Amino acid sequence: MQFNSGDTSRIIEMAWEDRTPFEAIEQLYGLNYSQLVNFMRDNVSAGSFKVWRKRHVGRVTKHLKLRDPAVSRSHCKTQYKNR
Fold first, then answer.
1. What is the pLDDT averaged over residues 28-56?
2. pLDDT by residue (tens digit) across 1-35?
3. Angle formed by the axes of helices 5-16 and 46-56, to 10°?
């Protein structure tokens, strides 16, 4: 899939966010988990990709099925306080 620079930037941002589930990225941009891994590999530096993979493998907040039902939002409550 081809994305414009704004969408590419947003996908990378969402992939890095701890509370944004992979399923949200799939719903908005059509990238399942394996496609997202390939997307990140192609669009961030090798070092950043390694850090991202290490950080998110098994992180329960990134997978809706593993997430605690008490987590009902995809961002920190103070993240968008200026908007």
1. 94
2. 789 999 999 999 999 988 788 888 999 999 999 99
3. 40
Residues 6 or more apart whose CB falls under 8 angstroms from that of 71 comprise 19, 61
Question: Could you tell me where the DSSP H helices lie in 1-83?
Answer: 5-16, 22-29, 33-43, 46-56
The Cα–Cα gap between 77 and 81 comes to: 8
Q: Is the pLDDT of residue 60 over 80?
A: no
CA distance 7 to 13: 10
**For residues 51 and 71, what is the distance between their CA atoms, to the nearest angstrom?**
24
* Alpha-carbon span 74 to 27, nearest angstrom: 14
